[in-house]
Amino acid sequence: MRVGVLTGGGDCPGLNAVIRAAVRKGVQQYSYEFVGFRDGWRGPLEGDTVPLDIPAVRGTLPRGGTILGSSRTNPLKVDGGIRRIKENLAKEEVDALIAIGGEDTLGVAARLADEYGISCVGVPKTIDNDLSATDYTFGFDTAVNIATEAIDRLHTTAESHMRVLVVEVMGRHAGWIALHSGLAGGANAILIPEQRFDLDEVCKWVESRFKVRYAPIVVVAEGAMPKDGQMILKDESKDSFGHVRLSGVGEWLAKQIEARTGKEARTTVLGHVQRGGTPSAFDRWLATRFGLHAIEAVKDGDWGKMVALRGTDIVRVPLTEATAKLKTVSPEEYKEAGVFFG
Amino acid sequence: MRVGVLTGGGDCPGLNAVIRAAVRKGVQQYSYEFVGFRDGWRGPLEGDTVPLDIPAVRGTLPRGGTILGSSRTNPLKVDGGIRRIKENLAKEEVDALIAIGGEDTLGVAARLADEYGISCVGVPKTIDNDLSATDYTFGFDTAVNIATEAIDRLHTTAESHMRVLVVEVMGRHAGWIALHSGLAGGANAILIPEQRFDLDEVCKWVESRFKVRYAPIVVVAEGAMPKDGQMILKDESKDSFGHVRLSGVGEWLAKQIEARTGKEARTTVLGHVQRGGTPSAFDRWLATRFGLHAIEAVKDGDWGKMVALRGTDIVRVPLTEATAKLKTVSPEEYKEAGVFFG
Amino acid sequence: MRVGVLTGGGDCPGLNAVIRAAVRKGVQQYSYEFVGFRDGWRGPLEGDTVPLDIPAVRGTLPRGGTILGSSRTNPLKVDGGIRRIKENLAKEEVDALIAIGGEDTLGVAARLADEYGISCVGVPKTIDNDLSATDYTFGFDTAVNIATEAIDRLHTTAESHMRVLVVEVMGRHAGWIALHSGLAGGANAILIPEQRFDLDEVCKWVESRFKVRYAPIVVVAEGAMPKDGQMILKDESKDSFGHVRLSGVGEWLAKQIEARTGKEARTTVLGHVQRGGTPSAFDRWLATRFGLHAIEAVKDGDWGKMVALRGTDIVRVPLTEATAKLKTVSPEEYKEAGVFFG
Amino acid sequence: MRVGVLTGGGDCPGLNAVIRAAVRKGVQQYSYEFVGFRDGWRGPLEGDTVPLDIPAVRGTLPRGGTILGSSRTNPLKVDGGIRRIKENLAKEEVDALIAIGGEDTLGVAARLADEYGISCVGVPKTIDNDLSATDYTFGFDTAVNIATEAIDRLHTTAESHMRVLVVEVMGRHAGWIALHSGLAGGANAILIPEQRFDLDEVCKWVESRFKVRYAPIVVVAEGAMPKDGQMILKDESKDSFGHVRLSGVGEWLAKQIEARTGKEARTTVLGHVQRGGTPSAFDRWLATRFGLHAIEAVKDGDWGKMVALRGTDIVRVPLTEATAKLKTVSPEEYKEAGVFFG
Lengths: 342, 342, 342, 342
Known about the structure:
Order of helices and strands of chain A: EHEHEHHEHEHEHEHEHEHEEHH
Strand order of the largest sheet of chain A: 3-2-1-4-5-10-11
Structural class of chain A: alpha/beta
Low-confidence stretches of chain A: 233-237
CATH architecture of the largest domain in chain A: 3-Layer(aba) Sandwich
Number of strands of chain A: 11
Number of domains of chain A: 2
Oligomer: homotetramer
Distance between the termini of chain A: 58 Å
Largest sheet of chain A: 7 strands, mixed
Largest interface: A-B, 38 and 38 residues
Mean pLDDT of chain A: 93
Number of helices of chain A: 12
CATH topology of the largest domain in chain A: Rossmann fold
Radius of gyration of chain A: 22 Å
């Protein structure tokens, strides 16, 4: 058995841990051979490969990023894309393909498996934690830890100067990073894409915090939007999956708060530091187990499936189901956090 | 409604987060009053209290330990213990008691609730993660992160000197910390209390690692024991719950490995650093949610119950059920990790 | 002897350590009394004080920010400012004043001591490390560690996507944080305010990095400027010392690099996280020693002096001398780093 | 010019940063060639080499340990050792040798340079910071940060249980790590090898801490000894430089404190975690500059010299002078810290 592996979409701490675990188990337990495809779907599309064996994955467990490279290439949008992938898989004598990625990468894998008979197994990856069918995705815990540590640091600056500090974290469509880091960091307001925020209410929370002689921290997901629909988003570009890149809500919010409350406000946009660097222990554990179970799925010939976390168990779910619906913060979960606002 | 709160057993990152969340929600949402009992069950036993309100819990979210103090006092072993607790609860006009603790502390709470009609709600706490009925307990993730970071550091020393490094982590009866930190840290052997280890096999793993010019890390839980039953444990003392304190397996193991393989071996005993200091983001989030849901249980008058994590949900389970059985690493989970040994 | 203490200017990890050490030594060794003035020079100007004794400073060593608050109030710009300060010091029966701050705060202290006979001792504080007369100021090491950790994280994202990552760090007039974190983080270009950069050269470095299949990290101080004098700075506001707030070089640079090299480029602005949170061990040690030696200066009646680090010794220098000249990165030091560019 | 590089003695965060900087500067600026010798003096003694060029050092800056390996081999104790080293250097066409190490490694380099005409340049390395002639050695700052973080964590456990926590840190002959981490961590007693401690006094400090309802942390260097000369050291082994390995003062001290004060006491021995893992920003900066300046010394043919830190400058000093005298904590520096005891 010869297994191809690729990683697609934005990088995420834990990708190397998945690859390493799959290779270790495949080689040692089942004597599989492996080949790495470079830069997501671009690899099988263009036949761009790297050798993948146990020496190649040594020492990669604590390293962020992906040794295979990544891209947002969508082969379904490329003329003859499917045919070229099939040819290159055949040329490399690949019997099974493990695709590690988010909604987009796995969506392609689902179609290749279901419509074109390619033996694909998926491993879910999204730093935003917004894939349904799995309790958590790796990378998310690392991002939340980094954001929480930043909020911890910002508290002392806020208190020293009695300023409002707005922290913009990742999360275009789902507020998981904002919700978890906001709760863990003791934020006085958490704003998420799932629920439009009311500027008056935010300002009320800000002011009530100052009344007890403390300074407020406002955590805002990059995709959060104000209630009155005021246009704050700059359309920068679209990728090949048609996703728009947004930016600017944190900066905008600080200015609005300053104008309305008369308090100094500053913004910190955490940006890329949230997705880089060494994975947390949880993410290394989860990614490692995903890699091990992906090999089990390959061994079982269980194509078109994705590994997923349910409680403390790793299970398999259909790729189509997994990518069908975005997992967002429910109104109940958001309301639960509300007791800490203000 | 006046709610008493106590924390019992070994300290654990996240205890303050539970207390803070309970007080915030109780005061703001339901206008409850709170009173803190000092040092676990010693507090209600001796009527030793501290004021507990919102200002008292401010700034405690990121702080390890417990602002209420802790002890291993077992009131069931004290003459007239139950009576004295009832009297002190009455004197303090306490309508409900939230007990935060492990098997021992919650075992007392279960009996007080079920046999003596005291309105108790439990919050599970064990750094060892060995309570059944909950997927995770807070403190565990912090301990695993600390142990993993230590293992990361020890790898470079092991490689530089081509030495065996034995890391002894917490876990008397359950190997969860060893299993998770060993997997996350890339250990070459993980030894847990659930399964007696074979010294010959450990030495074989050690030697196979040196063959590829790498140096091995052996992670051993403090309660792990060798197969041949050789007595390695020093009985130091017993606490009031009759638990024996053990020590020494790491040191002993390094000597055995050195003697059998001829390779230099060193031991690091992580000890108390695993349970102190600021909680990880996950533990702050979990502890906070436990605190919020404990108040909901109080509001519902759902006595004799414990909050627990199932997947991403907080549920309630009977205290008796929760403390009935130790949650240990299953043979399957241990075997899954075995692919990385050697 | 009754000693007043104030902290002025931007907050900085280590301020509390100075205060704590001064109070501990003053109270225990010399039986001094202390009083804290709130928010820098606003405190003595308006007679706004807080009690300051050993219990007040307990537990503050690891905490960032300042328990006394801070501001950029300049009493020399306030009508009758000096008179009001003298009156309030007399009212509080303050015999000596310890002013902890940067160029501005210490500049006021120097004039109060030299021209108005107020018994002032200074402790230097600047996260930018740009005060002459001291080898290092506390806060700087913490900021460099935070920036370095961020650069470590960004490397993996840059490699995974083969992108340019621009990291904007603090440093309006001096490039110390950029130089040290850039060297420590393995940056491929470091741009500082002391030397105007050449965009063509920066792009050459960027391209040469991609040629060896690695992705470049560009570290840029917020005050760095391009050679051709292109206006990139947004004048946001001026504080009472007349300092202009700048912003935007990182964002601008990424766009220029993208346009000129055709490579994707992203910016991360570290911002306030660099100055908040728990101080590094070095900063706690340095700040503690500054506090201890400030009390020695008070005991010696050595007014108009500032404590300073020379090698591993704490010495005293005249406040006027200390604040006369900005300490900037020399051309030799910058050239030394150049071997790593590209 | 062909330059040999070796690393000797205990591993230390920053070794790879020295090697990388030397290679980068040597290759790019002067077109030098490099060869690595394995495992300290064993490399040139046995002619055991590894290729050393820019690709070999890529990515090593943040990595602890040494890519060249290390050992405590003393070639002066080996029959014909000098002759064999000369032969192997000639065989490898090595024109200059950069020896990175502590007292022992540099002592050999000094004799090779001064007595046998071998073109040696030294780079000082000791995690204990006990080399005279340099303000700091790299690795020390990392060790102090790790020890301080551990002390931070132990405070919360000590407080929660009102226990004494004894932390044993590195330092056989010099108390620098104990002094700096003890000051930075807010220890209530710091015991160093330079000054025998009085158990009665230590117990007095411990008890005075409990009186204010806080729990004490005692930091003890592994080489600290009690006043009454009670034998506490276990002679484990001697290395080829005749150094005895000691152990046990922390454990012993906790038992003594428990027996004398009646308070529960626990010990944490930090051990090898202090010397492994990624270097702090300061150590990366210092090690990098040492590497750059070692190449300058090579270029100048300044044999028998060692690079050293003086204030913020890198200077050169004779190797003989540098290794002649141990740098220990002076009575004044120790006394300065005493204000925090108790």
